[in-house]
Amino acid sequence: MSPTLTTLTPAVPRGATLETVETPDGFFTIIEAEGAVLSSGWTALPEELTGQIHPSLLAARFDPAASALRPALDAVARYYDGDVDAVAAVRVRQASGPFRAHAWDVLRTIGPGAPVTYLEYAARAGNPTAVRAAAGACARNAAALFVPCHRVIRTDGSLGGFRWGLPLKQRLLDREAGRMPAA
């Protein structure tokens, strides 16, 4: 993976940094502040990520001297080299209400190669009747790959939704199940 773009844009929180790298699944951009991923996804366009960042984080001022983008970039490289657990160690910072924030933490406990259904995910998040709320937490997840919403599927085994497209969701699941060679 080679860096292709490093820049700051007005829509990125003050003091945050971003970088776009090329992966086997296309461009992947990370917006980071003070060592935590604020938003990430398979795009070369930062504006496709900033809309997912909570307004309180967009308005925050971060210390650029505390920036630590390299661990996240290294984790993405290791992920695509076959260490699919590497992304779990990367710090993430998202903001929302109590259920959604907890649900994002729960997503990080779903291991690679072991997807769960939206129903199972809602139960793990503490409310088995909150399937729609659990699906909403997946939909509003700003830190794709690091908070692995792609590991949640429908009860019938179909993929459900994924902001970055169902073909990519399937490739991620296949990679994590060992059905795809490392990059």
User: Shape, please?
Assistant: globular
The helicity comes to 25-40%
Total count of strands: 6
Continuous helix count: 7
Distance between the termini: 9 Å
- The Cα radius of gyration reads 16 Å
Beta-strand fraction estimate: 15-25%
| Low-pLDDT sequence parts | 4-8
- Sheet having the most strands: 4 strands, antiparallel
Rounded average pLDDT: 92
SS-based class: alpha+beta
Q: Would you list the SSEs in sequence order as H and E?
A: EEEEHHHHEHHEH
What does this structure look like?
There is one protein chain. With 183 residues, the chain is an alpha+beta fold. The protein contains seven helices and six strands, in the order ββββααααβααβα. The strands form two sheets. The chain has a four-stranded antiparallel beta sheet with strand order 1-2-3-4. It is globular and about 45 Å long.
Summarize the structure.
This protein has helices at residues 47-50, 55-58, 70-80, 98-107, 118-124, 131-139, 166-176; strands at 3-7, 17-23, 26-33, 36-41, 116-117, 152-153.
Attribute tags:
4-stranded antiparallel beta sheet, two-stranded parallel ribbon, globular, 183 residues, 31% helix, 7 helices, alpha+beta
Describe the SSE topology.
Elements: E1 3-7, E2 17-23, E3 26-33, E4 36-41, H1 47-50, H2 55-58, H3 70-80, H4 98-107, E5 116-117, H5 118-124, H6 131-139, E6 152-153, H7 166-176
Parallel strand pairs: 5-6
Antiparallel strand pairs: 1-2, 2-3, 3-4
